[in-house]
């Protein structure tokens, strides 16, 4: 009797998971072009600055999801520009009702009076990573496979990222295989990261974001512009470091 009860519970759990997966959220990214109030025209000097300081993203070569939108926001009172990145989805929890159907990530670039980059900050799973970028040229960012956490390029010592290190995330992609498989019932996505750790932390697919910025605005609160360009709901992460 205990065996039959356990089997019944297992079947009910599987059925419930499949039902919930079918109810997973769908992204509704507004079609282009979008009309955003106070958009800076392309020939505006601030818009040109935002494009010139835009980071180069280096993706892991097996990245599945697409970078859909980029909004550049100049802070009105600080020499810093936020680059708000909208990815079509990530690998985690796509089948869970009420989760966000897209993935927002952020890179911030600070600059000096000569308009040269001085600092890079990135959003990394609830933490903000920082790197001094003086005399290092254009900002460069490594983008984590599947989850799109952003890192200043070239991080070797990841102690400041603990416990959210790349090593731990690589282990989690194997532990989280059932989550990925359920996610496939809601949208196209990977079945696994089917390679080793060295490849997991190799970032060699460049994206020149300065050529792909959709909108440039000047604002302390970027929510209005992001809501229009990204669609609702989106993640609404920490707007500034």
The main pleated sheet reads as:
6 strands, mixed
By DSSP, the count of extended strands is 10
Q: How would you describe the shape?
A: globular
Structural class, please? Answer: alpha+beta
Question: Which runs of at least 5 residues are low in confidence (pLDDT < 50)?
Answer: 1-22
Percent of residues in beta strands:
25-35%
* Count of domain modules: 1
State the separation between the terminal residues, measured CA to CA.
58 Å
Proportion of helical residues:
10-25%
Q: Numbering strands along the chain, what is their spatial order in the largest sheet?
A: 6-5-4-3-2-10
| Tally of contiguous helical segments | 6
Q: Please, what is the average pLDDT?
A: 90
Order of helices and strands: HHEEEEEEEEHHHEEH
What does this structure look like?
The protein is α+β, with helices and mostly antiparallel strands. The protein has one domain (2-230). The chain is built from six helices and ten strands, in the order ααββββββββαααββα. It has helices spanning 2-22, 45-52, 166-175, 177-183, 197-200, 223-230; strands spanning 56-60, 67-74, 80-87, 103-111, 117-124, 127-132, 140-143, 150-152, 203-208, 215-218. The strands form two sheets. It has a six-stranded mixed sheet with strand order 6-5-4-3-2-10, sandwiched between helices. A hairpin with a 5-residue loop joins strand 4 and strand 5. The longest helix is centred in the N-terminal third of the chain and has 21 residues, at 2-22. It is globular, with a radius of gyration of 20 Å. The chain starts with a helix and ends in an 11-residue tail after the last helix. Residues 1-22 have low confidence and may be disordered.
